[in-house]
Design brief:
The protein has helices spanning 6-16, 19-26, 33-43, 88-98, 113-119, 135-147, 166-171, 204-209, 216-225, 238-246, 268-279, 294-302, 312-344, 360-363; strands at 45-47, 62-64, 67-69, 73-75, 102-105, 124-129, 153-156, 230-235, 251-254, 284-288, 307-310, 357-359. The protein has 365 residues and is of the alpha/beta class. Bound molecules: ligand FNR.
Amino acid sequence: MVFVCVDDFEKKAHSVLEKSALDYYRSGAGEQYTLNLNREVFRRIRIRPRFLRDVSNIDTRCKVLGIDLKWPLGIAPSAMQKLAHPEGEGGNARAAGNAGSIYILSTLSTMSIEEVAAAAPDTNKWFQLYVYRDRSLTEQMVHRAEKANFKAIVLTIDAPIFGQRRSDIRNKFSLPPHLHLANFEGIKADGVRTDEEAISGINAYVSSQFDPTLTWKDVAWLVNLTRLPVIVKGVLTREDAVLAREFGCAGIIVSNHGARQIDTVPASIEALPEVVKAVGNDLIVMLDGGVTQGNDIFKALALGAKMVFVGRAALWGLACNGQKGVEDLLSVLKKDLEITLALAGCQKLSDIKGDMVAYESTYAK
Ligand code: FNR
């Protein structure tokens, strides 16, 4: 079968993944209204192409936080990637590196920070962090990431607790016994709680360690703790964007966690313009959520994002064929972006302007 779009990878992934893993990957919170919205709203934005502008040389290169990239798409952090394929996070990270992209490692990974660093030494890697009740545990994670040559800390702010994904509850989803949350190996478990919060695949210890008391003060603490730039992931409002600037963050990922936390929040692409307007001149603003096509990347950039990330799409690639599957998926997306740029009249990313997109409502008079 020839894979020509993300949906082809997804279809194949559906046939190879166990039901509970598939449900864990694909689900959103609640009725999954926002899950659908994440993709749908991209469709409601139209591209206003310009022609006769010499598009013989398409250049997708960009620089993000001092890192040279071949194109403005990276891989978002997602938990437990060995559920998709034995190559897990290592394979996914190598694929990102070979594509000239960035890989964000989830804290809740099935390979440790050090294992991923060894498996993909040449990939530009960022580390996604949750803050734990035990601050020394958080400090250890940050320092391990620094030592392993990760280049930024991505603090996820939208998960003080985990959202309710109905199929995970129905499936009683948990990590199969042959896999483990590798970053927590050998860490002493104080005050273990073994209640139903462990549902959603996080073992009881880890979920009991998540700190719901977290506030922006802790962001200031983290910014102080590390020499790496801190990026906050999960911003959906101008108010939080302004706070991210105030508390010393280097960047923002506009995200609703793949619609896995609260249902009926805006699609990421809906929230993007207000964040860009509020802080876009001061901080680097990026986006994830619902990106499956080159024209989605184009629209996010036109609305002010400097880079986008894919979560599930990479998991589908990984499930299909490990590292090679992710490489194939990324090359489909990159080609699609190049074609979109050429057909919209842009040689390079800086040619993409805000007036090259318009909302559906502009036309529906
Ligand atoms: C996630 N996401 C996520 N985010 C995070 O900060 N830490 C994590 O451990 C995880 N884990 C996770 C698991 C799975 C299965 C999914 C699908 C997602 C959210 C992820 O980083 C990203 O925000 C979304 O996946 C982006 O949306 P799309 O590309 O999946 O539509």
